[in-house]
Design goal:
Strand order of the largest sheet: 1-2-11-10-8-9
Helix content: 25-40%
Strand content: 15-25%
Structural class: alpha/beta
Shape: globular
Amino acid sequence: MSDLLAGRADMAAGLAVRGADALGASARATLVSHDVPARLAAADPALWGPAAEPAALARLGWLHAHRHSRDLLPQLAELAAELDDLDHVVLAGAGGDTLAAEVLAECLGRPVTVLDTADPGPARAALADRPARTLLVLAARRGLDRATDAHLRVYRQAWADEGPDAARHVVVVTEPGSELAARADELGAVVIPAEPGTAGPWAALTAFGLVPAALAGAPVAEVLDEAEALTGALDRDRDNPALALGAALGAAPGAGRDTIALVPDGTGLDGLGRWAGALLADATGGRLLPVVAESPDSPGATGPGVLTVGLGGVGAGVGPGVTADVAVNGPLGAHLLTWAYAAATAAVTLRTDPFAAPPDPADDDAAPESGPPSSVEGAIEVYAPSGAPADLTGALRWLLDGLGEREHLVVTAYLDRHADAAIAGLRPLLARAAGRPVTFGWGPRRPHHTDPRGRHLQITGAVTDDLEVPGRPYTFAQLQAAQAAGDRRALAGRERPVLRLHLTERAAGVAQLLDTAGRTRT
């Protein structure tokens, strides 16, 4: 355990933050002197400056969402009882609208099947699992993106083929008056209203986060109780764990530690880091770089420039053998409210707009580039940018060698995150080789911030068993290829280096790439 954890802990509602004052004491004092705890608890939209005030005014609903969401519980209980024969809950939506729900359900031990990619593999696997007993939850603030529309279409086709009433199988979570709400009326589907203006990782305690888990049988009322128990601490200067955490995060860049390694500490809630990382990226616009580490001893989890944060369930601190600068332990509902408050507080210190509209998503109608690969080695085609070596090892080394002192590598896999899950092992291998922060994400879920410090590795893969989209002139594989091409085009527009590796045979390509990365040194 880090010596930093030996100091006082901020505790409330069963949640404890230890070690934060070693880094954040001065930032905390400044926040208190400006009355930030009380102002944030009261949802003051002026905290982030005049330019940010209009967005904050519309998007601070997460502060009280746990109270508003109680109104949903009777409807959810009634709906779950009515649809108790539909025991396979599938959540379809864009990554920002599904991540909180996926992590919440996972942490509560009732995972749902999530479809947030155009890769045909997950869609085929989900369709093969009891379509007649499937409840499809569509989640979007406004309208459906192309991938979610495709998932709805293939399910409606499957239900039509089997004969059941499609409307009974669909639940929609969206903002009142949205395009999706109108479409739900046409479908005859149940609509559950979401908190207006609250989306992405901020929406964990709204209908976006709670509905899929509740319909899968998770005890979401307990989560709301845990969040409510923390509320009384949020306007306090002391014994306010969310303030302590936010102050430490906001002070980290000034101390030369702008990489935040989120490490599971072995006491439960292992998936929470994925959501917390997305929240920090959203709130700080690239000032903090969240890295979700696989384990405490993973490359990149510690080191110069890194603030290591251990996350876990209720416990005395961190699990055995875990080294962390800051430890956050407590019940899930308290975690969800604490991290949102901390991210908003860190944004005050860093002078970022935590609720700025995200960049437009990558164009999912982009035509993939034509032209031959730079080289072909085994099951991998290399598409190297101008000036990079054409061979696989040389291109990877060029990508890593080009990382400056304040740069990081972003790895995005447009693959099947279940069947091709082993590719996630690339992150620690490249982090060890680079000696610089490396993040990993599944396309198109990766946050698209405008951080200018990233170099990019994109991995795509051949599709051998494609899936038609009923009523559309494209397939799932074609849509996925267009998403990946749109991502590359957006990065090129920001003048960021992108190396693309295409796996002509996925399993062999994954194994080959992991082997090559393991032998690559800068």
